[in-house]
Amino acid sequence: MARSITVLNLGKISYRAAWQVQRSLLQAHRNDSKNEKSFLSEQHPGDVLIICEHEPVYTVGIREREYSQDEERLKALGADFVRTDRGGLITFHGPGQLVGYPVINLKNYSLGLRKYVSSLEKVLIKTCEMFGLQGKTTKDTGVWIDERKIAAIGISCKRYITQHGVSLNCDNDLSWFDHVIPCGIKGKGVTSLSQELGRKVSLQETEPLFLNSFCDVFGCTLAADEKLAENIFLKADFIS
Predict the structure, then answer these.
(1) Active-site annotation, residues
(2) Global confidence as pTM
(3) 3-class DSSP state of 25
(4) How far is the C-alpha of 126 from the C-alpha of 195, rounded, in Å?
């Protein structure tokens, strides 16, 4: 029987607020293992896939010291700057980019960390294929169209519970990437679905294809939970 994952669409939200939601869901998993209630809901929401879009933000992973001189320069461009606990180096998120954060227990899918990352890559490649694009993986992280990076992956995992996730460039302003070396990979470019196809590819067009790909790869079903979303936004003070 296929496992069910709750889809939580947060719309356009700051990176910091979305990260707080992830941490709250992570705590819900931990509370559930102790038979304690989560403050998000009376019942543990289980595995959740967050879908969202961010305001302009540069984020760095656990090797943040390499960017100690960059924070003020990047903030001056009008973007936020956030140090995180995910793997990977610096990247950019902004409007027009589809972001997915699975907060799931890997034990439920018999996945180790390496296979989990491979599964995320497959989701992104299948999504690109639905647009007639041949995505691929290389020795560098993420998913690529030839030598141009179209999707990034950066995760963390604590006691089998995942946080952070993937971003897929749909119709975002790629010039934001000009101010950094994305993911620390020199000599490579970035691209988007819109740039590759020569037309506007919106998040609304991309999201259902991404969700279908996620179902296929993870062998799960997806369902929205309006009560979970309502509980989160009723507690907007904790994510403001």
Answers:
(1) 183
(2) 0.91
(3) helix
(4) 18
